[in-house]
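Query structure, 338 tokens:
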């Protein structure tokens, strides 16, 4: 740890949150300049939408989204038009504050008029998105997938996707959204940080059961039910690649501004956390990208009321140790020199 920097150059610099040090002249840094900004909810939505306008069929893995408050009138108009053309369409929307994480400030609505357009939305912009009402369920529960992706280089574009990830489960059986259950976060939101507070959360000591499991255990289950797991993987890979392609033009601008070509500087790589939801028909949908995914391999356990201890989490260990190990192998400075 070098809280005040270091004079001698390093092979690899591992920054905690984002790229922040302009005094690095060689080696590799584990963050790209501008990545944190690019994956914020609003910026990501904008970048994907630009591509949706150009290639609507290729970019149909991201729910229809509007940016608040500026696109509120557009949101109202488009929803009205869609309802007029299909009166049987009974949508639900999810409102997510920009820059929020861990489910913070998220709520579901049935109609644009339900948006809390008070002073707070002006000061806290958000994305409102079509809610995916028919997710794939396992054990009657909604879950999402966290996949780890290594962006090893922007030019040439080099992307590696970890073969295993995490599946994070809700803790209340899923029902399609109704006015009655819209507020039930344990049914609709898969965030670990929320569901951990449910009495139903199961910390499991293996990777196939409980509220957090490996993605590979889900794939095994799906494959035994006869699902086309190969096609699912190829859809996921193409979702990841297309998302990164949508981000690259602006990432290159950030890169050139912080590390101009011709000047001595480091190269960058970054582990990204992709949050993906599978629809009932197995189509993967992108929820969000995390620039600083948690690499914790422990969780807190309450030993007695109010007394907590960190204990190992086998499922996090199984997935995350492999991600870090393979990342270090891929960026190995010795290999680079050879
Ligand atoms: P945060 O950064 O706060 O975790 P997310 O965009 O990941 O925000 O959303 C939180 C959770 O809400 C997701 O993990 C998922 O369970 C649910 N969710 C988000 N967007 C949608 C959507 N469009 N349709 C259905 N569920 C969604």
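Result returned for the query:
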């Amino acid at each position: 740890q070098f809280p005040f920097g270091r004079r001698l150059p390093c092979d690899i610099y591992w920054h905690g949150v984002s790229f922040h040090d302009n005094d690095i002249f060689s080696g590799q840094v584990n963050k790209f300049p501008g990545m944190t900004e690019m994956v914020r909810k609003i910026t990501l939505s904008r970048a994907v939408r630009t591509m949706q306008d150009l290639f609507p069929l290729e970019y149909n893995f991201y729910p229809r989204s509007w940016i608040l408050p500026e696109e509120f009138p557009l949101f109202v108009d488009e929803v009205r038009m869609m309802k007029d053309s299909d009166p049987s369409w009974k949508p639900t929307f999810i409102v997510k504050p920009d820059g929020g994480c861990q489910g913070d400030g998220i709520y579901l609505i049935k109609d644009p008029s339900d948006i809390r357009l008070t002073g707070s939305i002006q000061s806290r912009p958000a994305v409102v998105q079509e809610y995916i009402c028919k997710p794939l369920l396992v054990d009657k529960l909604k879950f999402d997938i966290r996949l780890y992706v290594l962006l090893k280089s922007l030019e040439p574009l080099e992307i590696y996707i970890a073969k295993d990830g995490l599946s994070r489960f809700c803790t209340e059986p899923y029902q399609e959204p109704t006015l009655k259950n819209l507020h039930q976060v344990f049914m609709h939101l898969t965030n670990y940080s929320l569901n951990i507070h449910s009495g139903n959360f199961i910390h499991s000591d293996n990777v196939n059961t409980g509220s957090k499991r490996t993605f590979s255990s889900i794939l095994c289950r799906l494959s035994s039910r006869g699902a086309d797991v190969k096609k699912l993987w190829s859809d996921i890979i193409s979702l990841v690649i297309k998302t990164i392609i949508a981000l690259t033009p602006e990432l290159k601008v950030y890169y050139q501004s912080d590390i101009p070509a011709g000047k001595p500087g480091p190269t960058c790589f970054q582990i990204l956390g992709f949050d993906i939801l599978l629809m009932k028909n197995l189509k993967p949908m992108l929820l969000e990208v995390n620039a600083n995914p948690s690499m914790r391999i422990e969780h807190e356990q309450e030993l007695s009321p109010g007394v907590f201890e960190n204990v190992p989490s086998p499922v996090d260990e199984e997935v995350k140790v492999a991600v870090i190990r393979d990342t270090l192998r891929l960026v190995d400075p010795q290999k680079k020199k050879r």
